[in-house]
Design brief:
5 strands; single chain
């Protein structure tokens, strides 16, 4: 029987994705002026409508894109989609799974 995929599993996988892509693992930081600003390029897990999606910050104001164009899907489906995304990056030579483990 397959194990249950939790939000923690998704968060851990997203953290791995941020590390292998050289992005900050923290989506938001507080600037010197005390205002929050987004770390452009950072991936994060977004939950809504009873499902999950992989988003990426595209500007300092927090604008984001749905990376996989999947909308909000069940946790297991997103887990599998992110793994496929990582395998695609590896196939393109963007990172080596063995070296990043």
């Amino acid at each position: 029987m397959a194990r249950r995929i939790t939000s923690k599993n998704l968060e851990n996988l997203c953290e791995h994705l941020n590390k292998v892509t050289g992005n900050n693992i923290v989506p938001w930081v507080q600037g010197d002026d005390g205002r929050n600003k987004a770390n452009i390029g950072t991936y994060y897990i977004d939950g809504a409508y009873g499902g999950w999606s992989l988003s990426q910050l595209v500007n300092e104001g927090g604008g984001a894109r749905d990376v996989l164009s999947s909308g909000h899907v069940p946790a297991r489906e997103l887990f599998n989609l992110i793994h496929a995304y990582l395998r695609g990056m590896e196939a393109q030579g963007l990172y080596n799974q063995e070296e990043s483990a």
